[in-house]
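Reviewer 2 asked us to include a model.

Predict the structure of this chain.
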Amino acid sequence: MSRRNDFLRNVDWFTFSLYISLITVGWLMIYSVGYDEDSSQGIFNLSTNHGKQLFFIGLSFGVLLFTSIIDWKFWRTFAYPIYAFALLQLLGVIFLGATIKGATSWYRLGGFTYQPSEFAKFATAIAIAAFLSRYNTSLRDWRSALSVLGLMGLPIVLILLQPDAGSAMVFTSFLIVLYRAGLSASLYLFGFVTAILLVLALVYDPSIITLGLIVMILFVLVYNFKDRKPSWLLGLLAWVAVCVVAASLGQVYTVLALNTLALLVLAYLQYNQRKRQLVAQLLSLVLIGSALSFSANYAFNNILERHQQDRINVWLRPSLCDPQGALYNVLQSKMTIGSGGLEGKGFLGGTMPKLNYVPEQSTDFIFCTIGEEQGFIGTVGIIGLFFLLLMRIITLAERQRSDFSRFYAYGVAGILFVHIFINIGMTMGLVPIIGIPLPFISYGGSSILGFSLLIGVLLKLDSNRLIG
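Predicted model (structure tokens):
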């Protein structure tokens, strides 16, 4: 009783209020999607989505109660056994799970389903927090860095085997925690550049990308000459203009060969000026960038399945997609959001989701319902609530005395941010459609329970921050 009273006295009620606000909005939107004025189904009817969601919201409050009475040290002490249990669930679902929409990601329990990847997010968050909070852990040590990347990578591999690329991508959110823990920023820069090259390789010919890399490096080499003159840069600009014209006329490989020759000549001159490290770095950039570009292009055209190619094309090259096929979902989603205008059509006033114009309107695309019924004002309001929640969690993280609590809080913030960014982004065509829920709002028992567990443990850890 004393422990519970301490929790109620110290709990961060602002975070709890944001949590309640979001799950309330989510339930109302789920109710609106399934609303039928000719039906007499009650709100507690478990044959409806809103009835099931209300049941899981009740269980979520049970999760919050459970986390409030468990000693906060329990999560740090048993972080690795909980993580191992989560991995066993992920492994077991591959062999024993039910296949839904092409992914064997669910355990079927009577009339309900359970997705173990939701629990695995929490388990990975506390395992990484426990590892990083050890006194002898330093991410400057490559063994520690590889160990923590392994903790992050194991669930990704198991989830990809299901296959469920969307859920696997969420685990990359722990890179935010690792950056806060001191992982080198140069690795993030390398990853960012790599991601840009991979995306460009899916849109443009890899030869064009390689040519662009060589031209940029030519500028760097010319700029680093000891006796550089303005005429050198002007001459290089003129050369680039000629290359652009020649490439536009279909002479890409000729231009590429000439620029490669120019690169080798300038690299040799710089090498003789004892700038060997610079030359090695620049040439490595060209080789690695070219290899990534050609590899990504080959994988896209020869390894990915047709439906996987369509998802990427919908994102990057919608003009190549069939408006009645792969592009249909995004078009309907954007049309639904736009139809809400400034103020929306009002609660229960949406029509497109109810007529099934929007796919997965209660789960992955529930943001469309918000856009149509609540309009621009409502969508900005929801995004504002998420923003406040993320900022508050970061504030909670920074005021922790315990390293475990701090790293766990950043893990929660990272998971929520990736979910929010990808879910809202895919409804507007800004990111590929990979099928992950909007936290606290999308329909789904596993989702609401998983996010509630994340928030509940965070509130418990924060309520004991003066002890940690």
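The chain has two domains: 2-183+323-463, 192-303. The longest strand covers residues 103-109. We have added this to the supplementary material.
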